[in-house]
């Protein structure tokens, strides 16, 4: 695919996400996609995951714990098989209504018309602080223990 086609694919991913169409979003991903967010202690959807099912679980857990107030990808840059997106988001933590604001950088790797790898960079300190006060509510909401909430490759 061309660099412009790769950007269009990533834009379709964001469009599906913004419209809450996780099935469509997953359809743009390779079966064995590598998915990585910085690991944040106490935030069970962070860390590394592999495969569409694990990414679907990521979106399920994330939607249980927070809701978007703003999600704004702003700049798309493509080079060969990579698309880098910078933007800004604001999430309301459902247990506390605390607002988590951060700029982000997303890196998508594309192969054969599918996303094969996704990596996010954001302000992990802000995430840790936002989630710190509601650890018990998070465990109850997603049915996890402190040991299983530790991020890892799933």
Automatic annotation (TrEMBL):
Transmembrane segments: none annotated. Pfam families: SnoaL_2. Keywords: Isomerase. Gene3D superfamilies: 3.10.450.50. GO terms for molecular function: isomerase activity. InterPro entries: NTF2-like_dom_sf, SnoaL-like. Residues 10-117 form the SnoaL-like domain. The keyword Isomerase applies. It comes from the Bacteria. This is Ketosteroid isomerase. The lineage of its organism: Bacteria, Pseudomonadati, Pseudomonadota, Betaproteobacteria, Burkholderiales.
């Amino acid at each position: 695919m061309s660099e412009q086609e790769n950007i269009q694919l990533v834009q379709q991913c964001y469009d599906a996400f913004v419209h809450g169409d996780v099935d469509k979003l997953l359809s743009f991903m390779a079966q064995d996609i590598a998915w990585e967010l910085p690991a944040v202690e106490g935030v069970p959807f962070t860390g590394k995951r592999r495969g569409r099912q694990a990414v679907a679980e990521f979106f399920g857990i994330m939607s249980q714990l927070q809701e978007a107030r703003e999600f704004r990808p702003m700049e798309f840059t493509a080079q060969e098989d990579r698309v880098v997106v910078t933007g800004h988001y604001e999430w309301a933590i459902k247990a506390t209504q605390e607002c988590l604001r951060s700029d982000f950088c997303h890196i998508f790797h594309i192969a054969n018309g599918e996303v094969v790898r996704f990596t996010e960079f954001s302000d992990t300190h802000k995430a840790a602080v936002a989630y710190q006060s509601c650890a018990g509510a998070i465990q109850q909401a997603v049915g996890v223990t402190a040991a299983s909430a530790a991020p890892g490759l799933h």
